[in-house]
Amino acid sequence: MGWLSERVIDWQRLHGRQDLAWQRTRDPYRIWVSEIMLQQTQVSAVIPFYLAFLERFPDVRALAAASQEQVLAAWSGLGYYTRARNLHACAQRIVNDFGACFPQTAELLEQLPGIGRSTAAAIAAFAFGERAAILDGNVKRVFCRFFGVEGYPDSAPVLRGLWRLAEQELPEIGIEGYTQGLMDLGATLCTRQKPDCAVCPITERCVARLNGRTAELPMPRPRRALPSRSTVMLVLMRGDEVLLQRRPSPGIWGGLWCLPQVDGGLIGEPDLAGFGLRMHAVTELEPFEHVFTHFRLMIRPLLLDVSLFDHVAETDGQLWLELSEIDSAALPRPVKTLLQRVRAQRSMAVKT
Ligand code: SF4
Where in the chain are the domains? Predict the structure, then answer.
């Protein structure tokens, strides 16, 4: 066995994480759900969502049979909703094309929606013991430091080199402990800020540590200013109900319930005739910013008290929701936060 893998496996056995909610199982469904949740979210934040999600959807058939609305609602609060839509689509593929049995190799798993190369390898290693290499964000950081890899790790040539290293270091036996060990090392010792090199099992040969370069590696993404967009969000209140519209999918917040938006800005008052609404009062709320991966969205919320014209029926993709029900609805986080603020202000106004 190689020097690196031997130390990582031994360290994992003694000091790694052993009792996470998704460990000690070979059930590919449970492993898959945890791996998808962990892609952009920290372990401590994932645990309560993971347990509630499994209670709601105990197996792949239950998940495949649910509506997208139900899956998004169970995901609400975890962010990065494409993961939830892919999870749902993937469950349906597994049920329809594989008779509800997960494919057993990383190569086949990688063909499914939302399962990239590293996630496929992790599922194959933990569920089926396949000797497959992972390379998630934490592992990239460990390898960049340990091998002294220069350049931004997600640029194509650097990434190719990292995959080569990941495959080259795979142990002949003990893939589960090695895979878990790399994940644990990256999450608990070789952290972004202040890696704990003094107790690291691979410190002796770590290039970044030996050369005093742990703060420099991995190298950051070359700087690029995020473009900025603006939108007006209309909080249309009819009594205690707010009007929500389902966003088209695919797209930003696709499939989620959102407030009607006027992208780019608004001159004068909004035209509400298209919604079949009559406006009674307008209040400017405090603007705020939401940062997406590729741009910043400057949000200017307007609170409008409205009433409905008698002759206009509710249409598909529109919903009047009581403010008291927003906590469990499938809303993007900034919309939920904004509506919670509106609800708090209204209940203060009633009391005074
Ligand atoms: S010695 Fe430090 S920098 Fe190197 S892998 Fe271990 S924790 Fe990371």
Answer: 3-210, 228-351
The atom number, within ligand 1, closest to the CA of 200 reads: 6
Q: What is the pLDDT of residue 279?
A: 83
CATH number of 228-351: 3.90.79.10
Tell whether the model's pLDDT for residue 314 goes beyond 70: no
Ligand 1 centroid to residue 149 C-alpha, Å:
13
Q: Please tell me the distance between residue 123's alpha carbon and the centre of ligand 1 in angstroms.
A: 26
Residue nearest to atom 1 of ligand 1 (CA): 203
Tell me the CA–centroid distance for residue 76 and ligand 1, in Å: 35
Average pLDDT, the chain: 92
Q: For 3-210, CATH number?
A: 1.10.340.30
Domain 3-210 matches domain 228-351 at the CATH topology level: no
Per annotation, catalytic residue among 35, 216, 241, 286: 35
Quote the pTM value.
0.70
Annotation says 69 is catalytic: no
What is d(CA 46, CA 26) in angstroms, rounded to the nearest whole number?
A: 19
Pocket of ligand 1 (CB under 6 A): 142, 145-146, 189-190, 195-197, 200, 202-203, 206, 208-209, 214
* Atom of ligand 1 lying closest to residue 214 CA: 3
- Give 196 or 294, the one with higher predicted confidence: 196
